[in-house]
Every structure is written in C-alpha cells, then in structure tokens.
Amino acid sequence: MDTKLGTVLLAIGPSDSDRLDELAATVLEVAGPADATVVLAHVFTRTEYDDVLSRLEFDRERDDVDPNDVAGRHETILELQATLEEHDVEYATRGAVGEHGPTIVDLATEVDADRVVVGGRRRSPTGKAVFGSTAQEVLLSAPCPVTFVRNDDFE
C-alpha cells in the first residue's frame, strides 16, 4: 500500500490562534517525512472576512481583493509559514470565504488533498447540539483522511 502524501491541507479558522503550536507540530509530523506540500488554508465566514479586511487595512473599494491575499497577511498563517520554512516544508497559502465545514471540504477537493488537518474543541453534548461542529462536518465529509487536533477546553 502506497502511503506517500502529496498534499496536506491544514485548515485554520479564527479560533485556532491558541493552538498553532499543536497544529504546526501535527502537520510537520504528517507532511515532513512524506515530503508533502502543505496547503495553509484560512477559512473565513463573510462576517469574519469583512472584519479581517478592516483590521488588515485592505481597500474595501477595490473589487479585486482576493481571499488568498487576505489569508497570506493573516497572523496565524504568517506564523505557520515561518515554522514550515524553518523545517524546509513546501507550502502554499489559500484563503476562502464561506461556512467553515463545507468550505474546508471544498478546499480539500480543490487541492486534491491526501490528508486534512483541522483543529477543534471538546464540546459538551449541549454545545454539539446547539452549535454544531466544523470538525465533525470535515471528519464526515472530507474526500480524504482527516487528522483532528483537539483543544481540551470545553465549549
């Protein structure tokens, strides 16, 4: 059985800044030995995207603001890029706007990912029922295996 990975998608969202070290360590463990390319993907909801455009001082009047450019200037992506460069891991950066779960699954398909790495939090049963779970959606719908990096804080 061939276990060579070509592409690993590391999906980052707004709540992942507190677990970047764990996500980076996991993606290095998965991609490094396989010489895989890591796609750093930051997925924004429309509201998050509008907030980031303002915070990073993008010109909102321009029609050609690209989510890839926005993701590439986001602090979490910049930190992960530095880590990957330090370990000589090839990477690309992608940005996308949409609901987190389905958009991550779409990106995994678009980049032909062999593995997806996604973070999440432990949730109480009520939290799962009320808020849903991006990680759960990705785990169930991704076109490839998914590695889940859990944060033990309850939501």
Automatic annotation (TrEMBL):
Pfam families: Usp. Transmembrane segments: none annotated. Residues 7-150 form the UspA domain. Gene3D superfamilies: HUPs. CDD domains: USP-like. Belongs to the universal stress protein A family. This is UspA domain-containing protein. The lineage of its organism: Archaea, Methanobacteriati, Methanobacteriota, Stenosarchaea group, Halobacteria.
